[in-house]
Design goal:
alpha/beta, Rossmann fold, 2 domains, six-stranded parallel beta sheet, 12 strands, about 40% helix
Length: about 400
């Protein structure tokens, strides 16, 4: 790819240091309007999306990939993602290759001042010779990765956190009130790419088989419950999840699968106890890979979840959903295009702060078991009508 830049900026950058330091110095010049950044003069052939985490955010970032593929059908389009989340995107037909980000390993090396593996990893990215990079994460580490890639054109959000905008030479200003998905799609403006809002996810190889081991493909309806969260303030009272499970079984649901991350069983003791006495309730917490979780949700008749990755997977697989939200702004981070599937009770004086456990628990406790059960029953009724009466 050829680029254009002011000779003034190029010459100053060369005098200061070799790449990639030169690129950072040039970014500073661009930020203060001293120079104009490089522009694409022909379609890019090597593109990198930088969106390492979190799992739910990775799932709802796929419209970026689809949009870029529609605009550049012959390009190599890679995605840098945290190694533990690679299964969320690796089966997508528009993706050329996953670039794993071994965050924990590299973090330990940096903390111990062991640079060899870090240098090799950075070198492996630079050798791919990307000419366009989109920082869809908007944090310091993602901006740094974009800069270290050596790409001539690096696009990011002008309002991004932790000064990550400094590493990008094309900055798109997006409204803070805009939904996260729309803000990411707005980055495409910097490359002149029309947005395509295709949220579809694809189950990776092995995910379907893993899900079938947990829930055999009998054609009967099953419900996925996701009662856990990293943040206590995002958790609906766990005993209400157990009460919901009892009601769902009473509605004729054949099986309930409870999902979550490793070690999160302690967050839902009532469900664990219920499963001991009822074989129709399966505790799959910590027992599924990302691909296996996707396989379960793709086949489910309903997903009931706190603000967590299963919500966005349900959107990606177009599954019936009841999303339970408290201290987070649904208009910005809720299930994209599915606001009618959200239960949230906001009162005057409330503020959105998911890190405040007391505030969050107070807001989540306002959501009653009765209204969640009613919402679940309504969605199950619609799904059963679609599948036929033999599903229950």
């Amino acid at each position: 790819m050829q680029t254009k830049a002011y000779p003034f900026a190029r010459s100053l950058g060369c005098r200061i240091a070799r790449p990639p330091i030169r690129g950072l110095f040039q970014s500073i010049l661009y930020a203060f309007g001293i120079a104009h950044p490089p522009v694409l003069t022909k379609p890019p052939s090597h593109i990198l999306i930088v969106r390492p985490s979190a799992l739910g955010d990775v799932c709802r970032s796929v419209p970026l990939l689809v949009s870029l593929r529609r605009a550049y059908p012959g390009a190599r389009i890679d995605w840098l993602v945290q190694d533990s989340f690679r299964e969320a995107i690796e089966a997508h037909p528009d993706l050329s290759e996953v670039v794993p980000f071994p965050r924990k390993t590299l973090g330990k090396d940096l903390a111990s001042l062991r640079w060899l593996r870090v240098r090799r990893w950075v070198g492996s990215i630079r050798r791919r010779r990307y000419d366009l990079v989109l920082d869809a994460q908007g944090l310091f580490r993602s901006g740094l990765i974009a800069w270290l890639s050596g790409a001539a054109v690096r696009i990011g959000d002008r309002r991004s956190a932790e000064c990550s905008w400094l590493f990008c030479n094309h900055r798109v200003k997006t409204p803070r009130a805009m939904h996260t998905v729309d803000r990411m799609l707005a980055l495409l403006e910097g490359a002149g790419v029309p947005p395509v809002c295709d949220m579809r996810l694809h189950v990776p190889a092995g995910g379907t088989a893993e899900a079938a081991e947990l829930v055999p493909e009998s054609g009967e309806a099953f419900v996925v419950l996701a009662p856990t969260s990293r943040w206590p303030g995002k958790q609906w009272p766990e005993e209400r999840f157990a009460g919901l499970a009892v009601r769902l079984l009473g509605m004729g649901v054949a099986r309930i699968v409870v999902v979550g991350g490793p070690g999160e069983e302690v967050q839902c003791p009532s469900l664990v106890e219920l499963a001991k006495g009822d074989g129709r309730v399966s505790i799959a917490i910590g027992r599924t890979s990302v691909g296996g979780l996707m396989g379960l949700i793709a086949r489910s008749s309903l997903v009931v979840a706190n603000d967590s990755a299963p919500v966005h997977m349900a959107v990606g697989f177009d599954r019936p959903l009841v999303a339970l939200y408290g201290p987070t702004d649904v208009s910005r981070v809720g299930p994209y295009g599915r606001s009618l599937d959200v239960l949230q009770r906001i009162m005057p004086g409330d503020r959105f702060d998911h890190k405040n456990a007391h505030l969050g628990k107070t807001m989540m406790a306002r959501i009653s078991l009765d209204e969640v059960a009613a919402a679940a029953e309504a969605r199950l009724g619609t799904e059963m009508h679609r599948l036929g009466p033999s599903s229950l």
